[in-house]
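Submission checklist for the structure archive. All mandatory fields must be present; incomplete records are returned to the submitter.

[x] Identifier: Chitooligosaccharide deacetylase
[x] Organism: Pannonibacter anstelovis
[x] Residue count: 315
[x] Sequence attached
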Amino acid sequence: MQPLTIIMYHYIRDFTRTRYPGIKGLDLAGFRRQLDYLQSRHTIVRVRDVVAAQRGESGLPADAALLTFDDAYAEHYALVFPELYERKLEGAFFAPVDPVCHGKLLDVNRIHFILAANAAQGGDPEEISAKLDAALREAEAGWNLEPVEAYRAQWAHPNRFDDAETIYIKRMLQTALPEALRHRIAVDLFAHFVSMDEAAFAGELYMSEQQARLMQGCGMYFGSHGASHHWLNRVPREIQEAEVDRSLEFLRRIGSPVDDHWVMCYPYGGWNEGLLDVLRDRNCTLGLTTEVATALINQHDPLLLPRFDTNDFPR
C-alpha cells in the first residue's frame, strides 16, 4: 500500500483582471502559495511515477502528491503551465476534446458563468432560478416533468461549497433534467445573462490544441476527459466508447504516451461498471474520480483513484 495525495484543480485565474470575479476558483497568488505549501510537505510526482508504482516497477515517496487540472481552461496554459515549468513540476491536464478542438462551450461552464455574470451585475441566484422555474413550468407537460416544488424539495440543499439556491440551479442544469432540455435552458440563460456569442466566449475560455501540444512537449501530461464532458455513467455503451476513442485520438495527436500508459479523469466523477469495461478493453492504466480521500496504490482499484479538491488545502 502506497499513499498518494491527488489534488484536483479547475479554475485558476488572476481575479484582479477578470470580468467574472464571481467564478469560484483559485486566485493565481493563492495557487502559488498553495504550491509553496504542497512542496514544503509533499514530493510532487509525475504520472509516470504513479504508473510505475501501480505496475510494481518502483515505489512512491511516502509524501507523494500528484497535481491534476480538469477542463483545459486557457489559464491552465497562460498561468498554470509557466508556474509549474519554472518550478520543474509536472501537472496532469485533462482536456475534453470538443471545447479544445471545436470551440464548443460546455454546459457546466455555461452554468458557472451564468451565476458569475449575474453576481457581477449585482444580482442574486434567485433571479436565475426564477427564470429556470418558469422554463420548467412551461416544459412540464411536454417533457413529463415533476412539479417545480418536487425538484426544489429534492435538490435545493446546500453543500460545502454552495448555498441551496445555487446548488438547485447547478443540479437542475447538470443532472436532474433530461439532457436535451437542460442544454436548451442553459443556452437560453447564457444568452440572457452572459453573451449571445458562445463561439467567441469558448475561444477565450479554453486552451487550443496547439497549446496543449506545446505543454505536452514541455513536460506536462495530458490524459482523457472524454470528448463532450458527458456524465459517462448515464449514456449507453456506444457513446461511452465514442467518447473515449475520440479522446484517445486527440491525445495521440498531441503526443501523449497512450500506447504505454494513459489516465482517464471522469467528467463530474461519473463512472459505472460498463465504462470500466470500456476502459479496460483499451488498456487504461489509471482512473481518477471525485471521491475525497487519499489514494492507496495497489489497494484502490487503479481505475477508481480518489482525489482531494484544492479547497481541502491552505492557499
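[x] Structure attached
Curator remark: The chain is about 50% helix and 15% strand. The first helix runs from residue 28 to 41.
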